[in-house]
Design brief:
The protein is an all-alpha fold. Helices cover 67% and strands 0% of the residues.
C-alpha cells in the first residue's frame, strides 16, 4: 500500500514533462548531478540547527548590540490582579462593548478602567523592544548574507540575463554545488520560520505569513524535485532583496534613529515595488508562464507551480498596499507612522477610546505599532 501511495504521489505524468521519467533523471551523464528529493531532506534537521544558531546569535551578538545602542529589555507594567477579568482575558483578550458593560456592572468598575486593565494586560504579554531588535537583527543578517551569496552565484549564470535559458534542455540541467547550497539554506531557514512563528512576536498578519511560508516551502521543494532550479534561484533572490532594507529600517526604528528609519523605509518601499511588483511578475512569472510554455509546453505540475507563484503575487499586492500607506505618511509627514498590523498598544490609543461615549464604544485591539515595530516579513 505504501508503494502504491508513493507511486501516486510521485507520478511521472504529473511531475515531469511528456516522455520524461524519473529513471531518466536517475542516470545523469558522468560528472553531472541532477537534483533528487532525498538530497534536501537534510533541510529539516538543519532547520533545527538554524533555530539554535538564531538563539546563540541573538544572545551573543544582537543583545550586546542592543545594549550598546541603549535598547533596554524593559519591565512591562503589570495589570492589577483580578480573577474575574483574568478568566475573561484567557478566553477573549479584547472583549466587545456588551462584555465590557457586563463586567462594569459585575465589578462596579468604570468601563474605561476595565478597558485600561485589558490594554495593560495585553501589553504585559508582549515582547520588549530589545527582543524585537534581536529578532530583526537575525533576519537582517541572514537576508544580507544569503542575498550576497545568491548574487555572487547568479551574476555569472546565463539565465539571470536571459530567462529563456531556464528552459532549454529542461529537465536535463546539471545541478551545481552553489545551487544546492542555496536551496538547502533557504529551505532550512523557511522551515525554521514555520516553527518559530508560533513562538515569535505575534502579528495580525499571522495567517497571511503562515500561507506565505507554506507556499514558499512548497515552491522550493517542488521546484527542486522537478529541477526548476534556475527559475527557483531567481525567485528566492528577488524576494530576499527588499527584506534587507525592511529589517534595517526596523533596527533603526528600535534604536530611535528616526531619520535613518524613515529613509530606509522609503528605500525598502521602492525596492519592494521594483522587485515584487515589477521584476517578479513581468520577468520571472512571465518566463515561467509563457517562455516555458513555448519551449517545453505545459504539464500537470506546471499548473501547480504557477498557481503557487501567483499566490505569492497576490500576497505581494496586499503587502504593498500596507507598505505604501506607511511610506506615503513617511514622505509627507516626515516620520514613519504606524499601520494596522500592530502588536503593541500605546496609552494614547486608550485615551482616544476614553473620549468616546460609553454607549458607542466598540473596543478593538487597535494597537497601532506598525511593520517597523516588529512585523514579520519574509518575506
Amino acid at each position: 500500500m505504501t508503494s502504491s501511495i508513493s507511486a501516486w504521489l510521485w507520478s511521472e505524468r504529473f511531475w515531469l514533462p511528456e516522455n520524461v521519467s524519473w529513471a531518466d533523471l536517475e542516470r545523469p551523464p558522468p560528472g553531472v548531478e541532477y537534483p533528487h528529493l532525498r538530497d534536501i531532506v537534510i533541510a529539516l534537521p538543519l532547520a533545527v540547527g538554524v533555530f539554535l544558531l538564531r538563539q546563540l546569535f541573538e544572545r551573543l551578538v544582537a543583545k550586546p548590540c542592543a545594549h550598546i545602542l541603549q535598547i533596554q529589555a524593559g519591565v512591562p507594567r503589570r495589570a492589577l490582579s483580578n480573577d474575574v477579568l483574568e478568566r475573561v482575558y484567557r478566553s477573549k483578550s479584547c472583549p466587545d462593548s456588551r462584555q465590557l458593560e457586563g463586567l462594569s456592572k459585575q465589578l462596579d468598575w468604570d468601563v474605561r478602567k476595565i478597558q485600561r486593565w485589558f490594554r495593560v494586560r495585553r501589553n504585559q504579554d508582549r515582547p520588549s523592544t530589545q527582543k524585537k531588535f534581536c529578532e530583526s537583527m537575525w533576519r537582517f543578517t541572514f537576508y544580507l548574507g544569503i542575498f550576497i551569496y545568491a548574487i555572487r552565484h547568479l551574476w555569472a549564470s546565463p539565465w539571470m540575463w536571459d530567462t529563456r535559458q531556464c528552459w532549454y534542455n529542461y529537465p536535463f540541467q546539471p545541478l551545481s554545488p552553489g545551487q544546492y547550497n542555496y536551496y538547502v539554506a533557504e529551505l532550512a531557514f523557511y522551515w525554521s520560520l514555520m516553527f518559530s512563528q508560533f513562538t515569535d512576536i505575534k502579528r495580525k498578519d499571522f495567517f497571511i505569513m503562515l500561507v506565505h511560508h507554506l507556499a514558499t516551502i512548497l515552491l522550493i521543494t517542488f521546484s527542486y524535485t522537478n529541477n526548476m532550479i534556475r527559475a527557483g534561484t531567481l525567485v528566492m533572490c528577488v524576494h530576499d532583496s527588499a527584506d534587507i532594507f525592511l529589517e534595517a529600517a526596523k533596527l533603526a526604528n528600535y534604536a530611535k534613529y528616526q531619520r535613518l528609519c524613515d529613509g530606509l523605509f522609503v528605500v525598502f518601499s521602492i525596492c519592494f515595488f521594483i522587485s515584487r511588483l515589477v521584476i517578479y511578475p513581468f520577468w520571472i512569472v512571465h518566463s515561467v508562464l509563457f517562455e516555458s510554455w513555448e519551449i517545453i509546453g505545459p504539464y500537470r505540475a506546471w499548473w501547480l507551480l504557477n498557481g503557487l507563484l501567483l499566490v505569492l503575487q497576490v500576497l505581494h499586492i496586499i503587502w504593498f498596499y500596507l507598505v505604501a500607506r506607511i511610506a506615503v505618511k513617511a514622505i509627507f509627514k516626515g516620520k514613519v507612522s504606524k499601520d494596522d498590523r500592530s502588536d503593541i498598544e500605546s496609552s494614547s490609543d486608550e485615551e482616544t477610546r476614553s473620549k468616546t461615549p460609553v454607549h458607542t464604544l466598540k473596543p478593538k485591539d487597535n494597537g497601532h505599532n506598525g511593520s517597523l515595530n516588529g512585523d514579520a516579513h519574509d518575506h
